[in-house]
Design goal:
The structure is a homodimer. The first copy, chain A, is an alpha+beta fold. Helix content of chain A is 19%, strand content 34%. In chain A, 42% of the residues are buried. Chains A and B meet through β2, β3, β4 and β5 of A and β2, β3, β4 and β5 of B.
């Protein structure tokens, strides 16, 4: 197999029944721009969790197949509550977890299992933080498989990212409806 | 109607198709002990989110019916990673959100809608933080409907809380499997 085919096979094995978002695996990994890399800070304890999205399994009775948890810095939350928008340079990390599910007294409950990968978005309204195929529509965009923090599998954000975000274009391409702490 | 019946009718209206956990609504509200009240700090931005549980709808194809998000102070996470247990006085808040669900390119995605209420647990291994029917098994326990922070509907934790937590008795009655940041 070519190096690219080997890599694709490995990615498919990691991702299993991939979500639509995982079409990002079409591009072989390359070094992401510094501003788009997964932050070195422990964002899960140092930043604010904006919200978690539960994605239903192919067989709904199995519960969730994935949980997607979104983080940003506290100062960005404060800026949004004051200004109604996020400042340039605001970084968002979305953890994609494969869900595990148990039958509990509360019901069929799903929770975070293994990490599939992480999406990073950085606000760039002025278009000054980067150029090229991972920047546009007011944002920088990159996806990183597993615990990878530098090498992104996002090639062109218009191909790899935008299709999933189009439903929320009027909300600056963010799924704000899932972030209760931003409500007033 | 008696005052108690009126209250029960109101609680049922708020809770809708109640989860097993909502059996806590059997008791009319009373002032909770200070240590068990919903913290006045903005725990959603100031504390750490340990994890979110997605609870499947009665009709699975509808997605999640609730999302349960658990928070504690950062110092408690650090203590757990060092000692393998939480210190006495560690407070845990679990937000219960009614889920909203949308068909998105990623799949059937559920996220936090309205707040049903909040569970508070405080670690009390030494049994020094409180006495009475809301304390026992190494913890204090209370549930608060909606945005209420003082008046709890938890009477006897053995009746109102323990049945849901029995499956994790060996984990000090906590659903640790859903908290990835506590894994080593």
């Amino acid at each position: 197999m070519s190096r690219k085919l080997i890599w694709l096979a490995a990615a498919a094995a990691v991702l299993g029944s991939a979500t639509a978002e995982a079409q990002v695996t079409k591009s072989p990994p390359v070094d992401a721009e510094q501003v788009l890399r997964v932050p070195s800070v422990n964002y899960r304890t140092e930043w604010v969790q904006l919200g978690t999205f539960s994605v239903l399994a192919e067989k709904p009775q199995d519960g969730a197949k994935e949980l997607h948890a979104v983080y940003t810095e506290r100062k960005n939350v404060e800026a949004y509550l004051n200004d109604g928008k996020f400042p340039d340079g605001a970084v968002f990390v979305k953890d994609l977890w494969n869900a595990k599910t148990e039958a509990l007294p509360t019901g069929t409950a799903s929770f975070a299992g293994d990490l599939i990968g992480r999406f990073v978005m950085v606000k760039d309204a002025a278009g000054k933080l980067g150029s090229g195929a991972r920047f546009g529509d007011g944002w920088g965009w990159a996806f990183f498989l597993g615990n990878e923090t530098v090498k992104t599998v996002t090639g062109d954000y218009k191909v790899d990212c935008l299709s999933c975000h189009e439903p929320v274009r009027k909300q600056d391409l963010q799924f704000l409806q899932g972030y209760p702490i931003l409500r007033k």
